[in-house]
């Protein structure tokens, strides 16, 4: 474990406790959880340690057998959707090449079936969004069962940010009933599995600066999306 992520970890049935940076966190009854973007725990009690800062992602075998995906072209590039039995699991924002979009979308996925008709209505909405039209994705079924507690609260509240609006990381923390946790909000949004559908690009710094963006395309794409929404209001 690197010094910057130093802390101790203990595992009990369905409970994970982690202490680091002077903070103790405890979650119970989870399928799997992300800790400081470094640790995952499965409901089997199996702990995966991420090394060298590389993202490690796993889906359990039951879900993997039912995964489907589609890569389709929007005005801004190739967009990807990954879904399971409970709804949308991942999106990948537009990139220049189809193979690149597939690589980003299916990172860490061993098996998924391509289905061009997957989320056909959502595909149409996404294409419309990148034509600078106001689009509401509130009716899209998103599977957030891999999140719980504060992380799930943040993603749910973030989803409620309306088209063309922005909030700060600190404001989002307050809306999620954790005032002062703006930095933690940023860390959670960096792991948002469904950017655009959960519009983390609409969360900016309190000083008005754009803040970070870990999705494909980075800060440049975040800025373009915010500018696009001003045109479509």
Task: Map the helices and strands.
Elements: E1 7-12, E2 15-20, E3 23-28, E4 32-35, E5 39-42, E6 47-49, H1 61-64, E7 68-74, E8 77-84, E9 87-95, H2 98-105, E10 113-114, H3 120-129, H4 149-159, E11 167-168, H5 169-175, H6 182-189, E12 203-204, H7 218-232
Helix pairs in contact: 5-6
Polypeptide structure, described:
The structure is a single chain. By secondary structure, the protein is α+β, with helices and mostly antiparallel strands. It is 27% helix and 25% strand. It has helices spanning 61-64, 98-105, 120-129, 149-159, 169-175, 182-189, 218-232, and strands at 7-12, 15-20, 23-28, 32-35, 39-42, 47-49, 68-74, 77-84, 87-95, 113-114, 167-168, 203-204. It has a four-stranded mixed β-sheet with strand order 9-8-7-10, with helices on both faces. The chain has a three-stranded antiparallel β-sheet with strand order 1-2-3, with no helix packed on it. Helix 5 crosses helix 6 (182-189). It is globular and about 40 Å long. 29% of the residues are buried.
